[in-house]
Queue: 2 jobs
Job 1
Amino acid sequence: MTEVALETKNLGKRYKKLWALKDFTVALPANKVIALVGANGAGKSTLMSIAAGILPATEGELHVEGRVVLLSQDKPLYRSFSVADMLDFGRHMNAVWDQQRALSWLGRFGIPLDRPCGKLSGGQQTQVAMAVALGARPSLLLLDEPLANLDPVARREVTGELLGEVADSDMTVVLSTHVVAELAGVGDHLLLLREGHRTLDGDVEELLSQHVRLVGPRADRPPVEGRTVLSQHTERQSTFVVRTLLGPESPVAPPWQAQAVTLEDLVLAYLKAGRGEGEL
Amino acid sequence: MRGLIWVTWRQHRWTILTSAALTALLAVFMVLTASKLGSMAAHCASPGVRCTRAKTESAPSHASYLMNSVVFLPVLVAVFWGVPLLAREFEQRTLPLAWSQDVGRQRWLFGKTSVMVALVGAMGALLAGLSEHLAYQYHAYTRESLFDGTQFQAGGWLPLTLALAWLAVGIAAGAATRRVLAAIAVVGALWITRMVVMVQARGHFMTPLTSMHPFSGTGDSTSYPNDMNLDGGSAPFIDTRGLVHSAKQVMGGWCSDTLTDIDSCLRDHHIVGTISKLQPADRMGTFHLIENGVNLALFVLALAVTWWCVKRTRTTVV
């Protein structure tokens, strides 16, 4: 049986009249990188803040195994502190601290220890914030849209190093984003949120093997049995994204074509479907 | 707690060092000035020596400046110690970082506030002790009442409790406004309000006594009581029949002619003395206790407001 890093049952959070999270039940597997995806306002930050214990839930239950560290989206640092001071801050403010791990992360990206954080570039500040988060030796590391200000190469480097950290420890990483391009090659597990509800949840490989894109002549229904996620039509052609048992292996008669979907396609299909786009 | 001491020191070290240096400087000046005033008072008490005892001489004048500085330091404590504790963190958006470590928000607030209270308390206690000593030496030389104005506020450990209260007010203003400049404005407005209210209220903590002061005509009196005079320079006059006349009627009417000798004018109108409202000297300790109590109540109230603000602060967005 797969170990669970975070489990919720009917979790809800209300801000005045607005429910940011409602009837949210999920069990996220341990020692994986979990991609938490959703549009702005979907409830990602709320879920992470509740999991980190800095925001009380309005209702429901949440269980987390071990230590939780949250790196919020603006990656706050004390601007007058040097990088070394920030590591001292982490050491003094946490019961458990791994100085070597934090130093090792900074060393990989060549961050100078004696420079004030306020004088570092945005990308370097991200690395310092990551080092402080990793030094706290979390069992569950919650990264709330942390890679937004990195260039694509640096982003790929960081995600690669993160995967290495997960492989070398028993840590689970939840990486929240609304930038679908950030997901490529990162997540083992996908959790998609929409308006405070869970829309899609599962192992990435399994989800990809259960979805197919079908392209063919204009039709009201797809040529295979399954749940239609998204349908788009032009005058002569229809395109469906369907969740079905055989996925891309689904047999279809010509002129229909069955194509595998990428993770980006899959996420976009669910996000578009949620906004009512592409459906007649 | 050691961790929070380190964090507080690292974040506020320049404020702490500057305050310590200022405290040391004030302490040295107060010791020197008090010593000089003591010598001057002892010299004046020698037989056959007549002294002017003028407040405008350099030593009493310095003492007055020093006592006023100590009385006004608490507002600087509020601005430079209290306000930045939370307001700067709100402005720089560093609270999510601080509060998401193992030290949660309530321990963070308790720890940092405790360190600041201890430091302000230590510096405040030193200055309060010295300012009380200085007030006594000032009184010994100038014969100004210890129960009046700056001398009263510099004594009875009031500078200590006032500094602690305004440290808490600064923290609360920062927590409530979340902006440094706005919090400083709030602190300034509250400080002025406090000054106005206390000047009016201080004389009425207890029901004042009424006392008749006859004109002795013997010149300099030998007793210099530490009463708090509530009439200022406008005490009403009393005549031989026991009738009371206002200062305006006497000094602004009957005896307003600058060519008339005041003494003969008062004699002509059968004025024999003044009636004054006062708080007697033996109430000074009680008044210090009352004002210290007000300060400590403000300290507790401000910390409660801070606690409530911190508790309801959201560190995330939807």
Note: The beta strands of chain B are 209-214, 228-229, 237-239, 244-245, 271-279.
Job 2
Amino acid sequence: MQPLIVETIFVLVKIVAVLAVVLLMVAYMTYMERKVIGHMQVRLGPMRVGPHGLLQPIADGLKLILKEDIIPAEADKWVFRLAPVMCLVPALVIYAVIPFDANFVIADINIGILYILSISSLGIYGIVMAGWASNNKYSLMGGFRSAGQMISYEIFLGFSIIGPIMLAGSMNLTEIVKAQEGVWFIFLQPLAFVIYLIAGTAETNRVPFDLPEAESELVAGFHTEYSGMRFAYFFLAEYANMLVVSALATILFLGGWRIPFISSLDIPVAILMILHISAFIFKMLLFMFIFMWLRATYPRFRYDQLMGIGWKVMFPLAIFNIAATGIIYYFVM
Amino acid sequence: MKKLLKTIFLWDLLIGLKTTLKHIIKEPITVQYPKERVVLAPYFRGHFRQLYDKEGNELCNACGLCAMACPTQVITVEAEGKGADRKAAKFTMNIERCMFCNLCVETCPKKCIVGSDYYEYGTYNRDDLVLDKEELFKEHKPRTFKK
């Protein structure tokens, strides 16, 4: 067969594999969150559906699929229908550049970080469209607040990423992981790590920055008028975004797929690939656990406090981090 | 100075995180009803029972003290027989009105009316809540569920 066809089939298989695993993980993140937060509150999470509640996401999915699909009468129908898709698809498309192993990337592009930042900006469109199309002033307010928060914190996310990029010398994600062969970047850039964590939490609308979608504040914010499968899309989009932020954090700060001593040993490539992919997923789950830990611990910020912290505290810190990294790098090299 | 350092390193936030993490190690205090049930105190005031004595005869001699002691007139007693053969012909308790004060239990001279551990006696018709003699002699055990 021609090499192009073989190559295409290979890429299609990789895409299907990654998407299947990611969607399954996203569904079970909802279960993991309920269990983890339950145990942190000295109670059990879901226990009745299946053994220890393991079939709970499936039950939730079935319930949402079977619900009535309501579109408000005065709503903008096409925008209403398009908004959930605009939220979910950018979150899933980012997985095209994330390297799970040295040889397991769907698309190894040289400007991986730029691709990720630009695609995640598209997710904000989905939220604004949802707020607008609901024909509900509270949803509109929720959409505006969420968009403002996400845009601001995306800037700080970008600035905090510049530190590891400077150390690695490339925006290619595989190169960044390879540059961490000596020391993981979390030890060289602790301030960037903290800023990244806070910006990532705000970017995905998680506690303590979840005012736009908090249940007791603006009813449910921008997704008030959505029910059934459309609401499930927003929910999946939020968890997919969380997984993306976790994946990027492991690549930039925790050494990606590398295991401290085992990666440099001489093991057959297949076994090493399996070990690497498991290590990557383990580190991603560690970050997801941190997100859920934060949710179980903190109350939420008021919107003006949120924006104040962003622009008055994180922005100077991020710029200071870039300047300090540059100066130290210049003197060390 | 110490306060400044604490603010820079987000000390209070980290203490909050540590507290939450300690809780995840503790065993949950949830009692998964109906698979497990809460352990009850010894003198729990549940459903009522009339007791038999060792030969299988009824202990109750229809003295009517429990009916007189009851503040809400739950018990009605009708006696038959004389002397040592005095037995209750009719003994009904209307649990709808009962407030489980246990005055009837305390005043009984033969200690034949007692409370028990059974508390799951919700029914669909009100007539089931008027207990006559045979009901009261039955010993109720709670249903067990596998899940």
Note: The interface with chain B takes residues 36, 38-44, 47-48, 194, 293-294, 296-298 of chain A (CB under 8 Å).
